[in-house]
């Protein structure tokens, strides 16, 4: 799986936006690409929503489950 992400990074960022003047320019482009990859892009496997939106929805649902009272045994 990591090889796929590295391939996407090289294709979408390094080769597409290059050539680079220096390491600092590539570093800033990498930070921008990682932000886009995690916050903006639509992911088909999770319903064509950005990963951060899917994760927030998951945790909203997960935290909405009733929590045991203090001293009561947990069901998990």
List descriptors.
mainly alpha, single chain, 76 residues
Care to describe what's here?
This protein is mainly α. The protein has helices at 2-17, 23-39, 51-63. The mean pLDDT is 84. It has a domain at 22-62.
The succession of helices and strands, N to C, reads HHH
Give the CA-based shape.
Answer: elongated
What is the strand tally?
Answer: 0
**What's the helical proportion of residues?**
55-70%
Q: Could you give a short account of the major beta sheet? A: none
Rg over CA atoms, rounded to whole Å, is: 19 Å
Sheet-strand content, in percent, reads under 5%
Mean pLDDT: 84
Structure summary:
The chain has 76 residues and is mainly α. Helix content is 61%, strand content 0%.
Helix/strand layout:
Elements: H1 2-17, H2 23-39, H3 51-63
Helix pairs in contact: 1-2
